Amino acid sequence: MKTNKENERVKMSKSIVITNIDERGVAEVILNRPERNNAYNGEMISELIKSFSSLYQNKNVRVVVLKGNGKHFQGGADLEWLKEIGKLDEKENIEVSRRTASAIKGLIEFPKPTIAMIHGGCFGGGTGIAAATDIVIASEDAIFSIAEAKWGVMAGIIIPHLNASIGVRNVRRYALTCERFDAIQAKDMGLVHEICKTGELDQTVKPIIENLLSCAPIALEMTKKRSLIESGLIISDEKFNELVLEHSKKRMTEEATEGLNSFLEKRTASWYQK
Description:
Layout: H1 4-12, E1 17-21, E2 26-31, H2 42-57, E3 63-68, H3 79-86, H4 90-108, E4 114-118, E5 121-123, H5 125-132, E6 135-139, E7 143-145, H6 159-166, H7 168-177, E8 180-182, H8 183-189, E9 194-196, H9 201-213, H10 217-231, H11 237-251, H12 254-264
Parallel strand pairs: 2-3, 3-4, 4-6, 5-7, 6-9
Antiparallel strand pairs: 1-2, 7-8
Helix pairs in contact: 2-4, 3-12, 4-11, 5-6, 6-7
């Protein structure tokens, strides 16, 4: 785990995604956009794809740990960026959704064990990231949501992984109401495996990493792959393209424009009559 000096280097780094690998093959992928609550934009998506591609090719990597710098793990999509993307033509919108879906696909199909360390806010795509990792540890202050519909867009890309992690019934509540849920609720639903006190994520994850390192690496890869195959989470190219097109088309609608504007202008959306 990191020393105070290492933590300071993370704070000072200008990289939007920081990747470190220790001598035992434990990689850390750190979301580093704390000024925007680690909300993802095109740059972060590209850097995540690049990071996991590099880790995939590194035979020394045994475990990957995902964490967020700052007060929150991940604040979902940067809605200002999303609004601007919606103004682009169809081809460009499809490409953005394709890269977003590729980032999630690269995470869930990554052959080595992955761990998400969740603190603070974990919203929208952040909850999707959690659902796509193998092991999720959250601190008591963690708050989750699947709030895309509130802003006129939809979470189609992450729905298969949410269905697998929290169950269709819970997705049909929380992705439709956009309610927030806490770490205890997330654990009850199956998204979170363990809850620790705030500020104790590193020490809680440490024995889990030790257990993973004590297991035979090829056996772990084969076990993970078979688990994904049997659960239907390695999706076909046809299904992937369907998710991408649906996701991009919804972002280009008048409803999405109104929803994103209502958020940015801090007002009630036109469809909600109190």
